[in-house]
């Protein structure tokens, strides 16, 4: 029995021409293949509810009652802020938005989804420089203020994970020792490092 511990459901549904129908097929296949669970990972401070609605829209297209019920039970969520330069610069507001998103998620359907939020993240440090890649990251974009802000945003999210007693999904590319420094600074090491 397999599980998908890290996917971005809304991304691949939005990028597919059949959208929600494609998502319904993916979820159906996961259920038919006895996937124990799938974890939809957050990357932006305000994406939690739109990701929930994307999953629900696809689940609602599954007409078989049994498969539909299993698909609903199978998908879980995390909420976090990937280290994007804009969100690093606006980290205080982004953290407030993240907290509000988590509160809204927990209140959705009278708290039925409260137990579906199982982690904070993905967040962390990314020093993989590839200006022509999808992330468009370039070392010259990161001055000392942005480096320090990135660390601070990561540590703020680790603190939130500790406060909520949730594991943290660490994103760490080409920043291993700095990542460990942040984890030590906060003193919270419950979670996974999915990229290093």
Q: How is the topology of this model organized?
A:
Blueprint: E1 4-7, H1 9-14, H2 19-32, E2 38-40, H3 48-60, H4 65-74, E3 75-79, H5 85-89, H6 91-107, E4 117-126, H7 144-164, E5 168-173, H8 176-186, E6 191-195
Parallel strand pairs: 1-2, 2-3, 3-4, 4-5, 5-6
Helix pairs in contact: 2-3, 2-4, 7-8
Describe this structure in words.
The chain is an alpha/beta fold and 196 residues long. 49% of the residues lie in helices and 17% in strands. It has 8 helices and 6 strands, in the order βααβααβααβαβαβ. The chain has helices spanning 9-14, 19-32, 48-60, 65-74, 85-89, 91-107, 144-164, 176-186; strands spanning 4-7, 38-40, 75-79, 117-126, 168-173, 191-195. It has a 6-stranded parallel sheet. Helix 8 links the parallel strand 5 (168-173) and strand 6. The relative contact order is 0.13. The model has no long low-confidence stretch (mean pLDDT 91).
Q: Kindly state the percentage of residues in helix.
A: 40-55%
**Average residue pLDDT:** 91
> Based on DSSP secondary structure assignment, what is the total number of beta strands?
6
Contiguous helical run count: 8
Unreliable residue runs: none
**Main sheet properties:** 6 strands, parallel
| Radius of gyration from CA coordinates | 17 Å
What structural category characterises the helix and strand content? alpha/beta
How would you sum up the global shape? globular
Query: What percent strand?
Result: 15-25%
Order of helices and strands: EHHEHHEHHEHEHE
Distance between the termini: 26 Å
